[in-house]
Design goal:
Layout (H helix, E strand, L loop, with lengths): L2 E14 L2 E9 L2 E3 L3 E5 L6 H8 L7 E6 L2 E2 L5 H11 E4 L11 H6 L7 H13 L15 H13 L5 E5 L7 H13 L5 E5 L11 E6 L2 E6 L1 H18 L1
Parallel strand pairs: 4-9, 4-10, 7-8, 8-9
Antiparallel strand pairs: 1-2, 1-3, 1-5, 5-6, 10-11
The structure holds adenosine-5'-triphosphate.
Amino acid sequence: MTDLLTTDKISLVYTDGERNTYALRDVSIEIPDRKFIGIMGPSGSGKSSLLYILSGLKRPTGGEVRLKDYAYGGRPDRELVDLRRTRFGFVFQQPYLLVWQTAMENVLMGAPELHEEARRKAQTYFDQLGIARLQNKLPSQLSGGEKQRVCVARAMMNDPEIIFADEPTASLDHTNGRLVIDLLSAYRERGTVIVVTHDPEMLTGADTVLMMRDGESQGWVTPDQLAEVGAKSKTISLGER
Ligand SMILES: Nc1ncnc2c1ncn2[C@@H]1O[C@H](COP(=O)(O)OP(=O)(O)OP(=O)(O)O)[C@@H](O)[C@H]1O
């Protein structure tokens, strides 16, 4: 199997005066094509930092990151913007939408070109996400969950090789969260989806899950193993009280 995304000993260090914080330390991972990948770990373990570097939103302070043969850890902003716009899709914890545009216009913003095909594709996503009746509404007229579903539709519009999602279900109730995750995971037929989450239940259908701790990779687990780890860590934290 060829790897889509690889990192070679990436680090991310924040320097504040004399003090260095290692958000990531020597993380080397390989992520295959067309998989639904989870990233989990305690708060502050480096999950978002890793996602930002994989997605070209931040540069590593050390090491290298590659999309197939394209190394982009040290590329200028212009190239990173291009990489993100043409090859990646994003869903963030907060639904960022242009407030003066309708839901449909926001989704079409994600399309490389505005033609009838893009409109049809957007329409399909609205239907699949159960928000077809909301397409002409402004973001201010939508609930948080509805806005997030609009963001998911927008992320898919450019047929990205990878969709990066940082806590995409944090603002949703369980039913809407599940709907969003199911749609994201179905995208693995076309590309890889990488989801950072605190909620192991959202990763029950994942192909594999990367565990992070203290800025380091702890290796990969299956969703079943994740449930065991979750149960154990609950016992430990209760026992520590
Ligand atoms: N801009 C920053 N300046 C300094 N330190 C930072 C900055 N951003 C993150 N950090 C530190 O880097 C470490 C990793 O942060 P990161 O946000 O990647 O963790 P996380 O696992 O995503 O946490 P959470 O689950 O709470 O969102 C933490 O110790 C955090 O305090």
